[in-house]
Specification:
This protein is mostly beta strands. It has a single domain, classed as Neuraminidase (6 Propeller). The strands form 6 sheets. Strands 6-5-4-3-2-1-25 form a 7-stranded antiparallel beta sheet, with no helix packed on it. A 4-stranded antiparallel beta sheet has the order 7-8-9-10, with no helix packed on it.
């Protein structure tokens, strides 16, 4: 009787082990990726990729591309863009480059999660949204008021994401006078948004020295937009979830008062400001608390981070573009016709030219992802 019960227990244990077999573990990466790509992006981003380490790495790096990445495009527009994948490895950064076809020739103005916001240089006031995962796209409804065209710097255009409501918002800011702003909420399938309507909101009443044109904003956490308005006291910022503009005071102290010699970049989910305080020193400030405007000095860069130029006397400080997730490497672009991409190792205090060719007329677009990513 005891022997019979023992055999029965062994059979039950074997059956239980068979039921717990993870058959996905036997699939090669390429087949598993094809299966995962059929799942909606929101499910992948907030649920599916946390199943296990393998799924997290595949979904993050191969599908959602939620790491340091750049898109290089021509200012005149093109139906082919260059995607630059930047990954941190044990001995430095690894760069991968691939060409991506888009069905609409235009200039990319903003990149949030898997969506691109594109403008047309020939069709005034036209905005197009394209999904990099599904390869689907759609024209957005025309703006309720015209700014003279989205192709130049006459207006500021950006794409953000409200992860709590699952809504994308297109922000359109331009000069009036007074300064005007409108939002377009994209619910559900963002590629079928013909019925969406623009909503006018109160714009800022201050623009520093930039009274006639806008740069593209620095996007943080897929939610906050920050515009450099050439002012020594503040930035113009917008919380796209609360739909509010405000002045964001700049950091500084009596020893190193803030001036216009600064640049903005997103770094590790925070707005980061690089302030040139002397000929051989640059302070890196982080906005650790947006609501309370709390800045903290993260690190300083010395003169070894400068790069030489044959068309400028001495050395010039390159412009920050993006940062890797670990916040160890900052990616810079040297301005001018002799443009190039560089990485600065904040741990080793070394600047290194990256093995990526970039033309002087190419512009960089940086991906913005939500805080949960």
């Amino acid at each position: 009787m005891a022997i019979k019960k023992k055999k029965q227990c062994e059979v039950e244990q074997v059956t239980r082990r068979k039921k717990n077999v993870d058959f996905f573990s036997f699939l090669p990466d390429d087949l598993l990726l094809e299966i995962l790509r059929k799942i909606p992006a929101d499910m992948l981003r907030y649920k599916i990729r946390f199943v296990c380490r393998r799924w997290f790495d595949l979904i993050t790096n191969k599908i959602l591309l939620d790491h340091a990445a750049l898109i290089l495009g021509k200012p005149t527009g093109s139906d082919t863009i260059r995607f630059i994948d930047i990954r941190e490895e044990q001995h430095g950064l690894k760069m991968n480059e691939q060409y991506i076809d888009i069905p609409y020739s235009g200039r990319i103005k903003s990149w949030c999660n898997e969506l691109l916001l594109i403008t047309d240089l020939d069709r005034e006031g036209t905005l197009y949204i394209f999904n990099l995962l599904t390869k689907e796209g759609s024209f957005l409804p025309e703006c309720s008021t015209t700014c003279g065209g989205h192709y130049g710097c006459k207006c500021g255009v950006g794409l953000s994401y409200d992860e709590f409501k699952g809504v994308y918002r297109v922000v359109h800011v331009f000069m009036g006078p007074p300064i005007q702003c409108e939002l377009l909420a994209l619910k559900g399938n963002v590629t079928s948004c013909g019925s969406s309507k623009w909503k006018k909101i109160n714009g800022p009443s201050y623009m520093g020295l930039r009274r006639y044109y806008w740069d593209d904003p620095v996007s943080v956490q897929g939610r906050y937009f920050h515009w450099d308005v050439h002012c020594s006291k503040y930035l113009v910022s917008m919380d796209t979830v609360k739909e509010r503009f405000r002045q964001t005071c700049l950091p500084g102290c009596d020893e190193y008062p803030m001036n216009n010699r600064y640049s903005l970049v997103e770094m590790g989910g925070f707005l980061t400001l690089l302030h040139k305080v002397s000929a051989d020193k640059v302070h890196i400030w982080m906005l650790k608390d947006f609501q309370r405007t709390k800045w903290e000095i993260f690190q300083s860069i010395n003169i070894s981070s400068y790069v030489g130029s044959s068309i400028y006397p001495g050395s010039i400080f390159p412009l920050p573009v993006t940062c890797v997730r670990s916040k160890r490497y900052l990616i810079f672009r040297k301005p001018g016709s002799e443009t190039a991409l560089y990485s600065y190792d904040l741990k080793e205090s070394q600047m290194k030219k990256l093995d990526i060719e970039i033309a002087g007329n190419e512009h960089c677009v940086v991906q913005s992802t939500t805080a949960s990513s």
